Amino acid sequence: MGTPEFAVPSLKALHASAHHIALVVTRPDRPKGRGRKIFPPPIKTLASDLGLPIVQPVSLRTKEFEDRIKRLKPDFFIVTAFGHILTESILALPRIGTINVHASLLPKYRGPAPINWAIINGENETGVTTMLMDKDLDTGDILLTAKEVITAQDTAQTLHDRLAMIGSDLLIKTLAEFANDTIHPTPQEHSLATYAPMLNKSDGRIDWKKPAETLEPFIRGMTPWPGAYTFHGNKRLKISKVRPISRNFTESPGTVLKSFPDELEIATGEGALLILEIQGPSGKRLSIKEFLRGYKLPAGTILE
Hints:
The chain is an alpha+beta fold. It folds into two domains: 5-192, 3-Layer(aba) Sandwich (Rossmann fold); 201-294, Methionyl-tRNA Fmet Formyltransferase, Chain A, domain 2. It is 26% helix and 24% strand. The strands form four sheets. Strands 9, 10, 11, 12, 13 and 14 form a six-stranded antiparallel β-sheet that branches. The protein has a four-stranded mixed β-sheet with strand order 5-6-7-8. A hairpin with a 5-residue loop joins strand 13 (272-279) and strand 14.
C-alpha cells in the first residue's frame, strides 16, 4: 500500500526479493498541473510495469475491498506513504501484521511531512523507522530504525530521495528478521513524540521578520514543494537557494539591501539573506545573475 515517489524503492525492493506481492493498493488517479490532466500515482505506474495486480479504492471502508483482501490471506500489509487511514478491521486482516515505513526516527515527527519539518526545524539527523501499525497515527511499536545525517545542503527533495532508498533496505531487513524470528517490537516513548503536519502552499510564504539563520533551513525544507515564496507587488517570487549573512542595517525586514547584476541581499529580522536561486513569473528556476538580467529589484524595494 503506497502512492507517491517515496514508496517506489520499497515496491522495487519487495519485487526483487523472494516475497510474493499479492496485491498493490494505491490512491486513485488525480489531476495535476495547470492543465489538470489526469495522472496515475507513481506506485501504479511501477506496479503496471512490473505486471502486478492493482486496486485504487476511493475508500477502504467498503465490504468489497475488505472481502478482496480477506481472500488473499496475506501475511503482511506493507504501508509506505499510502495516504489512507487504515481502520482496525483492515489492520486485523494480515496474519502477522502491518509494517509501516516512516521517514523519521519515531516518536519524533509523526505525521505526513516528517522530511520537510526535520529540515525546517534545523535538525542535524533524521532517518527511517519501520513499525507495526496500530489504529492511531504513527504510534505503533518500533521494529527497526536507520539514521541519516541532514547536511547543510539538503533540501526536502534530496533528503526524500536518500530516505526512500534507506527505507526500502530497512523494509527488506525487517521482513528478514521476522522470518528469522529475531525481530523485537519496542513500544514508543509517547512523551517524546512530535508532530509533522501536512504542508499547504500557503505555508511556504517567507516571513522576513524571522532571523536569516532560521529562514535558510525553512527555504530548504520547503523545496521543491510547497516552495518558499515572497511577493513583489502582485508577483510571486519563489526562492529556492539562499545563504545567511551577518549584517547590520536599519531597513525593515523584507527590504532589498543590495541589488547588483549578480547579487541580491534581503533584510530579515536578524541578519540578511543572500539570494542564490530564484524563480520569477517566467516559471523557471534561475541563478540570481540570470534572474536580475531580466527582472529589476533595486535597493529599497520591499518584498512581502
